[in-house]
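Please check this.
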Amino acid sequence: MRYLIEHRFVENSARAGAKFLIQRKGLSKQMIGEYLGNLQNQFNQDVLECFVDEIDLSGLQIDVALRTFQGFFRMPGEAQKIERLMEAFARRYCECNPDVIKKFRTTDTVFLLAFAIIMLNTDLHSPNVKQERRMKLPDFIKNLKGIDDGDDVDADLLAGIFERIRQSEFKPGVDHVTQVMKVEQTIVGKKPQLAQSSRRLVCYCRLYEVNDPTKKEKIGLHQREIFLFNDIMVVTKIFAKKKTSITYSFRQSIPLVGTQVYLFETAHYKHGVRLISSLDGKPLITFNARNEHDRTKFVEDLKEAVYEMNEMEAMRIDEEIQKHNRHSSDSGVVDIELLKPCDPTPNRFSAPELKKSQLTNSLTDITDGAIAQRRGSEGSLDSGMVSASSASNMAKEEIQNQTKSPKTTSGSRLSALFGKKSRPSKSQLRQSTTESSEA
């Protein structure tokens, strides 16, 4: 966020930052939750207040409103961060539902209910809680006795909350990480961890690996299923194919930073693509596409991703150089010049030059008068190639989002937290949830 503000992609205001987090696609829900829960940075806290103001919670039951609210991010694990998020939610809910609030003796009841709902969701749906120890409705009602400044919350209201959460787990909104997680579940074998907050799926396509471009091989002999992410290329082979799902076996992964892409044509391979390391010039892998259309679309996506990663690496190196120079000026050590990665992807073979995109960090269209928008990769491939959204649905089983709610909390801990006659304080909430997280 600081970088975007410094380079005028985002206006230097909390409200602009909040709108960016809500409206901009391609942001990790987990990182949004961590950002909003940052208690050390006042700007982050200001963004949180503006963030909740952008969400309309009018006319919703408190658990439904909380579900809507949490759909914009992934709940962090620290109790203090959860408490801060629940305070902001409670304030906004009270503003949007003044008639509902009149039924409570104090607005703090909304905060306590929201906190209890988060803990109930964890208790009912965490795989770490045994079925026989999961919260029951009578326990839930009993544990919340007296939270409304000494009075009880309506039992029917609590029963409705309990039943809705029991039937449907709280889940954060779908993002690019969710998509990568689904793809990761379809690949078997010793593969790198694919699901990362910075990684997104660009495209999926089918190519044919070529061992020697000068030798003819049987068509389709080395069929490969390629998952191109923004930072790596994962090469797989179909392992098992069913009516409703496909499983892939992992073969290799190739980092895109410092990679060059070349097109070639031989007597046996008319639509060749070769990846070469810019460090030593050694070939990394060679493919042949089924036709020129497939090759062009794939190479456009590939070159765009390589260019983006090289720019990101150059920025990282610049930052390291600045840190090094600051350290050297303080210590008297002579500066050491670092080399930056080469400009990517010239074409040395016979295929026509493919136009290189502008810096594709998906941020250029935020401001007025920005340079050309990023060309969308999704849906760009056909003739056997499918978009990222199609690729993610290949597996039959839906991969559950792993919420970052507080750690497993048993019924006994909830009872200890909410079973008192008097309303528990926020400090007690924080202490109890911290213990639950440690457990």
Q: What stands out?
A: Residues 333-424, 432-439 have pLDDT under 50 and may be disordered. The two ends are 34 Å apart (CA to CA).
